Amino acid sequence: MYANVGLNFVLVFYTPLGYHGIALSTVLSYIAGAGLNSFHLEKWFAGTSRRSFAVIKKIAATGWPAGLLQIFWHIGSTVLFMILGMLPSDTIEVLAAFTNGLRIEAAIFLPAFALNMANAVVVGNMIGERRNTDAFRGGLVTAAIGVAIISVMTVVIVLNARTLAGALSGNQLVVKESVRYLYISMVSEPFMAWAVILGGALNGAGDTKGVMRIVITSQWLVRLPLAYLFGILLGLGPSA
Q1: Is residue 224 part of a domain?
Q2: Looking at the 3D structure of the chain, how many domains does it have?
Q3: What is the pLDDT of residues 103-145, one digit of tens each?
Q4: Please, which residues have CB within 8 angstroms of residue 101's CB and are 6 or more apart in sequence?
Q5: Taking CA 70 as the corner, what is the angle to CA 66 and CA 76, rounded to the nearest 5 degrees?
Q6: What is the CA radius of gyration of the chain?
Q7: Residue 184: partners with Cβ closer than 8 Å, 6 or more residues away
Q8: Are residues 186 and 157 in contact, defined by beta-carbon separation less than 8 angstroms?
């Protein structure tokens, strides 16, 4: 993260790359992160067998649903932007408002994803110790704590929605649409936190296929079709 932020400033403002430097800094920071992770793994697994096809097969069987989930999720996000681009008026402002709303909303869903990963570790460790009942309880407790935290953060954002939106844009239409997006989306945040954090528990238990099916189904069979139906076909606009 520090490499990404630092390189953003250097490449964008002090090189001819301009905004293209953001993409390059992201690539370089990912490469640096991969290198550091490999270095630490090398220390932990020194002296062990470097090739274990049984382990590789098991990792692949568990990992491919998570990878496929990310592919479908990001494609779905692109499709959602395409649907917004089909609106009959104020398309640019709506897209800007949606982007700003996501930035503000990140203050909520990023902690939820952090608890998702923490829950995966907690549940995975307990299942590895054959403490299945404790794993089940630990997953639920972590999710409940996350929902409580996210609920408080949701209230804070709702009360300060206009101030936060105004800090990201001076365009009043963008601010208005950003605030409306936040008011609507904040209703779902506690439920989002519950689903995301419990998804981490399922991943930790090895049920990556179940998580993949749930997320892809909810996005591609519920969210995107309803966005197109309400926003475009029924003409409800960006509120949909």
Answers
A1: yes
A2: 2
A3: 999 888 888 999 999 999 999 999 999 999 999 999 999 999 9
A4: 165, 178, 181, 182, 185
A5: 140
A6: 21
A7: 239
A8: yes
DSSP annotation of 238 reads G
Q: Are residues 41 and 65 in the same domain?
A: no
pTM assigned to the model: 0.82
Amino acid at 113: F
CB 211 within 8 A of CB 202: yes
For residue 93, tell me if it sits in a domain. yes
Final residue of a structural domain among 28, 48, 68: 48
Which residues of the chain fall short of a pLDDT of 50? none
- Answer yes or no: is 54 within a domain: no
On whether both 33 and 71 belong to a single domain, the answer is: no
155 is in which domain, residue-wise? 59-239
Q: What is the C-alpha to C-alpha distance for residues 88 and 235, in angstroms, rounded to an integer? A: 9
Contacts of 40 (CB under 8 A, 6+ apart): none
If you write DSSP's letter for every residue of 170-201 in order, what string do you get? --HHHHHHHHHHHHHHGGGHHHHHHHHHHHHH
* Domain identity same for 36 and 88: no
- Tokens 């954002």 -> residue: 157
Is residue 96 a part of any domain in this protein?
yes
